[in-house]
Design a protein that fits this description.
There is one protein chain. The chain contains 18 helices and no strands. By secondary structure, it is mainly alpha-helical. The longest helix has about 35 residues. The radius of gyration is 21 Å and the shape is globular. It starts with 6 loop residues before the first helix and ends with a helix.
Length: about 425
């Protein structure tokens, strides 16, 4: 195992996962940044614009659920490669769409790759990083998403006013080169290869979904994480989808200045995720998850009710730091909640079932904006952040399974065998 965990291999895996999630984030936030232009070109209102984001989240949910399962069956690296190709090519094709309906269909397909890539990349990294540094590293990996937001905002500021929204989507084909690099330079985790080899020797194939629901403890944690993920993503993607439009429409700031505001917000998000990951390794995953969720819940109504021309930059910067804090911890917290042989299916399933549940958030805010304002819609998301913080805080213990603990995984396998014997 030592050769697998060598510094050189660890660095290669980290770079690949970081860049993978960065381009993932770029593709995702392009929709939010180009939303005002899309509304004008396709002549649609806030509710219809929200539906584009809703179908994007549905696609991401579908991709995450099946991506995790496929990664357990066929390999983390292999599936990460194909999913990156899917979302890169799919997002590029969006630039050729001519109607609102075409845009939604192609966006849904590309979002399948985005959702799968996120699930697989975070799981792959969790299986390479030692426990004592896991949340620091995964918090940094999560910051790659925000760095992708930042890069997309800078590109939009330079390209969109002069050339329109379509070239931004054409750029998305570049990550195909990264997919080729990952396929040939990143090895599959040793633990996954050993489990596959053991299953071949036993001559049996497991049904990961059946395993999850057969054990009462695993079933309970799966359901709790599914509910938590629903509230967390309802809030997170609600804010992420509508924040650029809120800055333009509600705050009355022109597009070029808006991209500058977003650069500040996303830079703060990068720092917030890295610092939160570091703190979580010292003070606990659960503690930082709760602090991040409750702090954001308090700040969202403050941004809506008390913003002024003099304080809005400071408020948005603080929001950027806080609203991604739970995400810095979420990957580690979830990956340590399930044993290795079902980790991809369980984490991908619970997280992305939550994503499907959260898919109505962009539409809901758009609907509220039709009658009130985008700001009011964003403020109501504080309720979801409170619930997302309290459920794991009350019911989910941290560090239940360690991806590096062979003995613990062996005990899990023995328990599963005992369950099979009892049911014969």
């Amino acid at each position: 195992m030592e050769n697998v965990r060598s510094d050189r291999t660890w660095i290669v895996v980290f770079i690949a996962c970081f860049l993978g999630l960065m381009v993932d984030g770029m593709d995702l936030i392009m929709l939010s940044i180009t939303m005002p232009s899309l509304m004008e070109e396709f002549n649609i209102g806030n509710a219809s614009a929200g539906l584009i984001a809703t179908w994007s989240l549905v696609g991401m949910g579908v991709g995450g659920i099946f991506g995790g399962w496929l990664a357990d069956r066929f390999g983390r690296v292999r599936m990460a490669t194909w999913m990156m190709v899917l979302f890169s090519v799919g997002t590029c094709l969006i630039g050729f769409t001519q109607t609102y309906e075409q845009f939604i269909v192609i966006r849904f397909i590309s979002a399948i790759g985005i959702g799968a890539e996120y699930t697989i990349a975070t799981m792959l990294m969790a299986e390479y990083v030692p426990t004592k540094r896991r949340t620091t590293v995964l918090g940094t990996i999560q910051a790659a998403y925000s760095l992708g937001y930042l890069v997309a905002a800078l590109l939009a500021g330079a390209i969109l006013p002069e050339y329109g929204w379509r070239p931004l989507y054409f750029i998305a084909v570049v990550p195909v080169l990264l997919a080729i690099y990952i396929r040939f330079r990143v090895p599959e985790p040793q633990g996954w290869k050993e489990r596959v080899q053991a299953q071949k020797q036993k001559g049996n194939k497991k049904n990961e979904w059946a395993t999850i629901f057969k054990d009462s403890k695993t079933r309970k944690i799966f359901i709790l994480w599914g509910i938590t993920a629903t509230f967390l993503q309802f809030a997170y993607y609600g804010v992420g989808t509508w924040l650029p439009t809120y800055i333009v429409a509600d705050l009355g700031i022109d597009f070029k200045k808006m991209t500058g505001y977003l650069v500040g917000t996303y830079t703060a998000a990068i720092l917030g995720k890295i610092i939160t990951g570091w703190l979580a390794d010292r003070y606990g995953r659960k503690t930082m998850f709760i602090i991040g969720g409750l702090s954001t819940a308090i700040l969202l109504p403050i941004v809506y009710l008390y913003n002024t021309p003099t304080n809005v930059i400071a408020l948005l910067t603080i929001l950027g730091f806080l609203y991604g804090m739970p995400y810095a911890v979420n990957s580690t917290y979830m990956n340590e909640s399930f044993p290795s042989h079902i980790r991809g299916t369980a984490v991908g399933g619970s997280y992305n079932i939550g994503r499907l549940g959260a898919a109505m958030a962009p539409f809901m805010i758009g609907f509220i904006a039709e009658y009130q304002s985008i700001g009011l819609g964003l403020a109501t998301l504080g309720i979801a952040y409170v619930l997302a913080a309290l459920i794991p805080g009350l019911f989910i213990r941290e560090k239940m399974y360690d991806p590096f603990d062979k003995e613990e995984n062996a005990v899990t396998e023995q328990k599963e065998s005992a369950i099979k014997i009892e049911n014969m």
